[in-house]
Every structure is written in structure tokens, then in C-alpha cells.
Amino acid sequence: MSGFNTRAIHAGQDPDPATGAVIVPMHLTTTYKQDGVGGLRGGYEYSRSGNPTRTALHEALAALEEGTTALAFASGLAAEDTLLRTVCRPGDHVVLGGDAYGGTFRLISRVLSEWGLEYTPVHLDDPDQVRAAMRPTTRVIWCETPSNPLLNITDIEATASVAHDGGALLVVDNTFASPYLQRPLTLGADVVVHSTTKYLGGHSDVVGGALVTGDAALGERLAYNHNAMGAVASPFDSWLVLRSLKTLGVRMDRHSANAARVVEFLVEHPAVASVLYPGLPSHPGHDIAAKQMSGFGGMVSFRLRDGEDAALKVCDRAQLFTLAESLGGVESLIEHPGRMTHASAAGSPLEVPNDLVRLSVGIEDADDLLADLEQALA
After folding, report:
1. Domain coverage including residue 355
2. Are 202 and 124 within one domain?
3. What CATH number should be reported for the domain holding residue 12?
4. Together in a domain, 13 and 152
5. Is residue 180 among the annotated active site residues?
6. Model confidence at 350, in pLDDT bands (50, 70, 90)?
7. Number of structural domains the chain divides into
8. What is the arithmetic mean of pLDDT over 132-143?
9. Which of 16, 48, 103, 313 lies most in the core, judged by the most C-beta atoms within 10 Å?
10. pLDDT tens digits, residue range 252-280?
């Protein structure tokens, strides 16, 4: 099963041996009958520790990211918290991408900092800056590529080299690209993070997260804490993400194609000051993105010439683009990061421009999306 779409449909999802059902059953059980004390069937004893539906999702995610261990969580931030508390100790240090997701920044700067974790925000597109930020106590370089919401690109191979030279792990949040467009473990990353709420779930009906690694020893430590800390994905949520993985490839193709049309329109619009999209040849990270991604995805950000008021008006006027947080669903969304998803970064080095608008371009007819943007920008 070497092809991506074949793996997305079949990995971990063999027909049910009891009935022949081609869809993995949803095992809504908390506990499992034992064949004598300690005689576990398939290793299952309690659904926090293991559930067959979640196991199927683990196998599918590991196959798609080309890792050996995958774990599904109740949210992306639950996955991040478990990872950082597994690989870091109080007094340790994290190099954090200078335009990281606001929730990641909040977790590190306001929650884990009280636990004793230190961090330094750095623009990861400059390996020299990353190297200069490393300390003897650095345990993790935390990277998003493309980043949220500025769509910056980090060279995964080069950053992995810096991390490993300093005895640290490279963690890549692959939510924006999905494993269909980018597989960081094959480029030297140690752990991949996903908000499965986004493109992996794809239908705006499930909240979840995931970790994937190719390091067996690290995988065992993460699996232990996955159970011990308990923020696991429910059977229903696992089933929803499994359902959606089957169409990930075709959805990402359409997201990317529609985004390219939207970018072409925005670049020429007089109200738009700049468009942030790695598929543009003028994007400073374009060449690296073209090297490490098979497509440029469905996320687009742009800045308005007339500032924040203009950005807010565009968000309010949009109709087909729904004003809402989150991303990666089949429907198109629009938001103002400074006041919405990234409000927690206000006043910090990660504060985003107030004239910025972020689009999650869905899979509707592209002409309808362009017409909506035309009237919103008028």
C-alpha cells in the first residue's frame, strides 16, 4: 500500500472480521471482558488505555505521516501539552516559531511557563537566528510550516540539523499542510503535531489532535503519558476522523486549486496591499515550500491597504465565506486573526498585523468564492 490515497482508505481499516463491515466499527465501550485475570483480548482492558476504533486511527495516521507511532488526543492542544510535558522538565527551554498559533503561544507562555518552561520566539526562516537562540537547556524547536496565520515557510531539513546539533527535538505542526502535501518525518523532524479538527477532520464536526513519531523509544514514552494523562480521543471522534481521512487527498487537491484562484484574484485587487501564500513565486519561502511540499494548500492571508477598519469590514461583508474561527473544513471561512484566533498574542512578540485577514478556502465552486470576495472588498 504505497500510494497515499490507498493508505488513507485502507491503513488500519481492514473489513471487520466478525461481520465483514468495510467501515471500522465504533466501539462505544468503557471496559472489556477479560478471559481470566489479566487475560486481555487484543490487549484491551479500559478505553482510556486502548480502544479498537482509536487504534485504527493510530495506524492510519502513522501510515500517512510515515511514522511508527501515532496517538490521537481530545484536542490539538492536549496533544501539545502531553508532548511538552513528556520531553521537557521545569527549567528547560523551547525555541518557538515567531508567528506560532496563538493557542500554542498561550500554552507555552502562560501555562507551561508557570511550570518552569522557558521559551524564545525566533523567526525560523533564518537558521542563523535559530542557532543563536539555542541553549544547553533547549529541548525542542517548535515549528509550523506553513505558519499560522502569516504563512511563513521553514526549511525542515535545515532546522532539523540545527535542532539535532544542539541535542534538541524538532517538532513540526503539520496542520496547515496535512500529510497529503508534506511529511516532516521524512525530512528529519522528530515529532509531527496535528489539530485533527482541521484538514484531517475536514468537515467542522470534530475536535481532536494527534502526535506522530518515527522514534520508537519516544513513541513509548508518549504512549505511556497518553494513557497516564488521559486526554485521549473518544471512539466517536476517532471514527469521524477515520471517515474523513478517506477523502483527504481529493479534498486537499480542491482546497489548493481554489486557493490558487483566490490568490490570483487578490493579487490584482486594488484594496489589497499584499497576499501571503507560499504558492506565489514572490513569497520569500516559495522555493523551500516547492521543495518540501507537493502543493501549497488552502490557507491564504492578505493585508488591506486601508488598515484594520478595512479588514474588519471585509470580514463583516463576506457572505459565502463564513466569519468563524478554525479552518480546514469543506466550507470557506474568513477571520480577523488579531481579534480572533491570535488575540492571545496581542502585545507579545508574536502579535499579528491588525490589517490581516485569514481565509480558509473551502471546496465550493471557485467562481462563487471570487464573487463573494469581490463584493466584500468593494
Report:
1. 248-377
2. yes
3. 3.40.640.10
4. yes
5. no
6. confident
7. 2
8. 98
9. 103
10. 999 999 999 999 999 999 999 999 999 99
pTM beyond 0.85:
yes
Active-site choice (54, 106, 183, 198): 198
Active site residue 48: yes
- Asked if residues 251 and 363 have their Cβ atoms less than 8 Å apart, the reply is yes
**8-47 tens-digit pLDDT:** 999 999 999 989 999 999 999 999 999 999 899 999 999 9
146 prior amide bond cis, ω within 30: yes
Domain end, chosen from 245, 277, 295, is at 245
Q: What would the mean pLDDT of 68-74 be, rounded to a whole number?
A: 98
Q: Please give the pLDDT value at position 12.
A: 94
Q: Say whether both 147 and 208 belong to one domain.
A: yes
* C-alpha 135, offset from chain centre: 27
Which residue is it, cell 539555542? 134
CATH number for the domain harbouring residue 341? 3.90.1150.10
Please check whether residues 33 and 145 belong to one and the same domain: yes
Among this protein's residues, is 198 annotated catalytic?
yes
Closest by alpha carbon to 81, among 161, 193, 168?
A: 193
% of residues, the chain, pLDDT over 90: 94
Same domain, 241 and 260: no
State the DSSP string of 318-350.
-SSSEE-S---SSS-EEE-TTTTTTGGGTTSTT
Measured from the Cβ of residue 110, the count of other Cβ atoms closer than 10 Å reads 10
Same domain, 252 and 348: yes
Give 25-32's long-range contacts (Cβ < 8 A, gap of 24+).
25/52, 25/53, 26/53, 26/235, 26/236, 26/239, 27/51, 27/52, 27/53, 27/235, 28/235, 28/236, 29/235
Write down the catalytic residue from 32, 44, 101, 119: 101
User: What pLDDT score was predicted for residue 325?
Assistant: 96
Q: Which pLDDT belongs to residue 348?
A: 87
Active-site pick, 92, 99, 173, 372: 173
The reply to whether 152 and 229 lie within a common domain is yes
The residue assigned the cell 484566533 is 341
Task: Give me the pLDDT at residue 215, please.
Answer: 98
